[in-house]
Each structure stands twice: as C-alpha cells, then as structure tokens.
Specification:
Layout lengths: L1 H5 L9 H12 L8 H13 L3 E3 L6 E3 L1 H16 L5 H21 L1
Antiparallel strand pairs: 1-2
Helix pairs in contact: 2-3
Length: 107
C-alpha cells in the first residue's frame, strides 16, 4: 500500500509486474523472498476489500478512494512499528544463546 500510495501519480494505474518491482526495490527484497504470486494474492485480497480497483478494461490497478484513506492511516502506523534492524536482531539472538549456555552453569 505504501508503494501504491506514494506512486499514485501514475494516472494509467499499476500493472502487477510494476507493483512487484516497486515493492522489491522499496523494501530491498529479492525475487525469491517476495514472489509475483505472493503479490497477486495480496492484490486479490485488497480488491476484495474494495481498496484496489481495475482500471477499466486494462490490466492495471489503482487505489480506490477507500484505499487511499486506509493507506493514509496504515502507512504511518506501519512506519512506526517497523521490525528491528538486523544488528538489533543479531544482538537478541546472541544474548539468547549466551543465556542458554549460562542457565545450566547457574543451576
């Protein structure tokens, strides 16, 4: 939704392949980490909720008015609760491993 909201200036709408490229570029994902099939599944769900619509007879998608309102609320919320950075995750894993080894010694 973030990509669609920020790229809504595309008057012709978004083809699924273009959305896929934009999402992968925006979030630094590989093609194996986020497949076109996964995106198509999510697009169907957003269409089902009335957040996306097909642009006439073309195979392009664009946010509906409801989709724009939901995205305007969702995107700032998502940015505030982003997952921790890689270094933070690594520190937590190292801490857990050290604690796992220290527990038997403490007992």
């Amino acid at each position: 939704m973030e990509v669609l909201l920020h790229g809504d200036a595309q008057l012709a709408g978004w083809r699924t392949a273009h959305i896929h490229e934009a999402v992968r570029a925006a979030f630094g994902l590989s093609a194996e980490a986020y497949t076109l099939t996964q995106l198509r599944y999510e697009v169907r769900g957003m269409k089902g909720h009335g957040l996306l619509e097909r642009d006439g007879r073309r195979y392009c998608n664009r946010l509906t008015e409801k989709g724009k309102r939901v995205a305007a609320m969702f995107v700032p919320f998502h940015q505030r609760v982003k997952p921790p950075a890689k270094i933070e995750t690594a520190c937590h894993k190292a801490d857990a491993a050290i604690q796992k080894r220290a527990d038997p010694v403490a007992a």
